[in-house]
């Protein structure tokens, strides 16, 4: 029981952090519906999460938390990338002809990999959730239990991304209609823009830009 308690705790916490629909999940969902490069993309997502979780459990979270310049740089580049990607999604939603052409010209594997890596590593929330939060909480466990906790979070990541990528194909009958794709692209754009705005606002609010001391 002592073995499964930290692993189960890590699984629950890791799962709760990655299930929220974000930029990365929205992209995996889209590729899953299209049945394009699913295995490669979900494996990259899961392995990326695993690497960040290991860094956090190993104590790297303390370094990231104490390096505001790193967080600022990642926040700015991430917000720019998400804004551009959201704009492209909105353009496809508004212009069905462009969306149809985009669907016919299938995304290459290399293009999908670059996109998903950008959505993963240019999102500061990924570092805060996996490296800082999970890494910090794992510190309450001693010895091997700390890494067992991290293993539980890694397992949750693999379960989620494979379920999302391969489960999305069951939505194929719904997305047989062009209108469904327009709606999906619209919501992807809103998700990207919302995350970009939240990143900028939250980061600079913490820095005192939007709420300076004494105001």
Q: Count all strands and give the number.
A: 0
> Strand content of the residues, in percent?
under 5%
In DSSP terms (H or I, runs of 4 or more residues), the helix count works out at: 10
Order of helices and strands: HHHHHHHHHH
Mean of all residue-level pLDDT scores: 79
Which structural class is indicated by helix and strand composition? mainly alpha
What would you say this structure looks like, in words?
- The protein is an all-alpha fold.
- It has one domain.
- Helix content is 80%, strand content 0%.
- It has ten helices and no strands.
- It has helices at 4-19, 23-34, 38-57, 60-65, 68-94, 96-104, 109-121, 124-138, 144-167, 178-206.
- Helix 1 runs antiparallel to helix 8.
- It is globular and about 55 Å long.
What is the compact description of this entry?
With 215 residues, the chain is an all-alpha fold. The chain has helices at 4-19, 23-34, 38-57, 60-65, 68-94, 96-104, 109-121, 124-138, 144-167, 178-206.
Which key phrases capture this entry?
215 residues; mainly alpha; 80% helix; globular
Layout: helices, strands, pairs:
Elements: H1 4-19, H2 23-34, H3 38-57, H4 60-65, H5 68-94, H6 96-104, H7 109-121, H8 124-138, H9 144-167, H10 178-206
């Amino acid at each position: 029981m002592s073995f499964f308690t930290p692993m189960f705790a890590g699984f629950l916490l890791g799962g709760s952090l990655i299930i929220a629909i974000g930029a990365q999940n929205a992209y995996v969902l889209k590729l899953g519906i299209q049945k394009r490069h699913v295995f490669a993309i979900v494996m990259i997502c899961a392995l990326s999460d695993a690497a960040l979780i290991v860094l956090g459990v190993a104590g790297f979270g303390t370094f990231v938390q104490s390096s505001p310049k790193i967080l600022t740089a990642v926040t700015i580049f991430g917000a720019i990338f998400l804004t551009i990607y959201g704009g492209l999604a909105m353009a496809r939603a508004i212009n069905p002809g462009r969306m149809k052409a985009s669907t016919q010209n299938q995304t290459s594997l290399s293009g999908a990999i670059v996109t998903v890596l950008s959505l993963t590593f240019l999102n500061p929330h990924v570092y805060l959730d996996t490296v800082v939060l999970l890494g910090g909480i794992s510190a309450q466990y001693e010895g091997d239990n700390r890494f067992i906790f991290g293993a539980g979070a890694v397992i949750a990541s693999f379960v989620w991304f494979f379920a999302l990528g391969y489960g999305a194909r069951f939505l194929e009958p719904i997305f047989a209609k062009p209108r469904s794709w327009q709606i999906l692209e619209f919501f992807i754009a809103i998700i990207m823009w919302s995350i970009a705005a939240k990143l900028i606002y939250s980061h600079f609010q913490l820095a005192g830009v939007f709420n300076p001391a004494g105001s």
